[in-house]
Design goal:
The protein is an alpha/beta fold. It has 7 helices and 5 strands. Helices cover 56% and strands 11% of the residues. The chain has a 5-stranded parallel beta sheet, sandwiched between helices.
């Protein structure tokens, strides 16, 4: 069974949460509700999420403050945040959203198709990251088995390493294409997304290189976790 990604929806108005669920249900992922910033932070203590859709205007702890707490936690600081707001105060207000760590900032009413498409990108990146970590963990266990070079397990490990590298290379190629597009675009959301993806890929490539035979010492290489 394919594991589903979790998407955190944060809004103090039940009707808005219902609307988001209707829009994102087609992605066939696990949608988790939070009616306040405090409730969102509690959910983030125990579960891993692919992306967070966060309302800006909420009583008590607003979206900006909630995002600040999320970014301060090592476990959650790399989770993409998409801000949703019914009030547009102009460029300064939008910049505050990006400064708080958002990868995108969308004003209501928004195009349901556009929102669904943007969320699907982060879900896909999350699922690829999970798959890469699982394969790297399996490979590490095989290498720790101490099988001599040329053995069946060693051959299987080498094949798995090659497959892992190829999968990562495909994602790196997509990231490179995105960077080239940014040469002609000043869109802050795209820049933030590209930077987030680059950090993830750099960590994954470093961990994969450490698994190569003869790389470094015999210590078990660390594999980046999904935050």
């Amino acid at each position: 069974m394919v594991q589903k990604a979790k998407i955190l929806l944060v809004d103090d108005r039940p009707e808005n949460l219902l609307a988001l669920e209707a829009i994102l249900s087609a992605l066939d992922q696990t949608l988790v509700r939070a009616s306040s910033g405090e409730e969102a932070l509690k959910a983030l203590l125990t579960d891993d999420f692919a992306v967070i859709l966060l309302d800006v205007q909420m009583p008590g702890m607003d979206g900006f403050e909630t995002a600040a707490h999320i970014k301060r936690r090592e476990r959650t600081r790399d989770i993409p945040i998409i801000f949703l707001t019914a009030i547009n105060h102009g460029p300064h207000h939008t910049f505050r959203g990006y400064a708080a760590g958002a990868v995108d900032y969308i004003s209501k009413p928004f195009d349901p198709w556009v929102l669904r498409a943007k969320v699907s990108v982060f879900v896909e990146l999350y699922m690829k990251n999970v798959k890469l970590r699982e394969q790297a963990s399996l490979l590490r266990l095989q290498l720790e088995g101490g099988q001599p070079a040329g053995g069946e397990d060693a051959k299987e490990a080498a094949g798995l390493l090659a497959e892992l590298s190829a999968r990562l290379a495909a994602v790196e190629e997509q990231a490179e294409a995105l960077s080239k597009q940014l040469d002609e675009s000043a869109d802050a959301a795209a820049v933030a997304t590209a930077a987030h993806l680059e950090r993830k890929l750099t960590g994954l490539r470093r961990a994969l290189d450490a698994l190569e035979p003869g790389a470094g010492n015999s210590d078990t290489p660390s594999v980046p976790t999904q935050n």
